[in-house]
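A quick word before the example. In earlier lectures we treated sequence and structure as two separate objects. From today on, think of them as two lines of the same record. Here is NADH-cytochrome b5 reductase written that way.
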Amino acid sequence: MSKANPIDLQMVGIFFFFSFSALDPEKWLEFKLQETARVSHNTQLFRFSFDPAAKLGLDIASCILTRRPIAEESEGRRKYVIRPYTPISDPDSKGYFDLLIKVYSEWEDEPASASLKPGDVVEVKGPIEKLRYSPNMKKKIGMIAGGTGITPMLQVIKAILKNPDDNTQVSLLYANISPDDILLKRELDRLSVSYPNFKVFYTVDKPSSNWIGGAGYISKDMIAKGLPGPAEDSLILVCGPPGMMKHISGDKAKDRSQGELTGLLKEVGYTEQMVYKF
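And the structure line, produced from the sequence above:
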């Protein structure tokens, strides 16, 4: 048998590297639920598995679409509920990805997140690009998140902190109902202790007797003290429930474009170019 041309082998390797992604932006692909873990009283982590030699193929920052059948229509076609989610696992991880999901009202017409069990299959399409992040694109990035709105923030935070050549300063204001509702607090605290370019501030609507963070809705004062001020080299990211979005920045437009900037961020002096709404 003749020896293979080394250049041919190199080209095969390059092709294999670029093509071996578990996601397809045009097709719904099946992913099996491997295991679940409780994160808070109403939130669970869901780990889905795929080929252990493949990467998910997720860009920073982007999300995926998931769908599950919930009924069969009279014409015999399936009716699906479709939801966008931002994986919180490292995009470079092989063979699995993690979603953080509330255990109620996420899948329509059923308590369904609770009904998902290891071995069940969910269809996934993506990635769906959101913010196109690149290292050092801004000197400072401020983040305002509420509840599960922490997921795209964590994706960006981890991408910045694991890159030694990315010098971006990151600050996060994270709002929740109570201290027990703060998701991934141990991980966020670990990152803030380990990396000097990341700081986090928490505020809750219903503080406990021993709570030492902020209390109440995010305010102008919290924004002024905790986030970079309005400037061309700063960017503010916002993600949370509709009420919080209206209070902070205004929601996206009906066509899902960024829409008009309103709320506290406009009052403080930020422009639409300085804010990105997930």
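Notice the following. The longest helix spans residues 6-19. We will return to this example when we discuss secondary structure assignment.
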